Amino acid sequence: MSPNQRLKRLNAVKVANALNKIEGVPVSQYAIELSDKWANGEISGAEMKSALIAAHKKV
Questions:
Q1: In 35-54, which positions are buried (b, 16+ CB within 10 angstroms) versus exposed (e)?
Q2: 41-50: pLDDT as tens digits
Q3: Which end of the chain is more exposed for a tag (fewer CB within 10 A), N or C?
Q4: What is the pTM of this model?
């Protein structure tokens, strides 16, 4: 992953978290951890989505 792509992903995460905050939706620590892994290229977007869905089904 290029540094530019990583920066774009980090900015996307910041925007998503800000939008959730504006809407009054808390971002879980697990979601933050997954977002960090995605931004760093450790997991794909599909893997992040699957992990979040699985975590929410357990609740």
A1: beebbeeebeeeebeebeee
A2: 999 999 999 9
A3: C
A4: 0.84
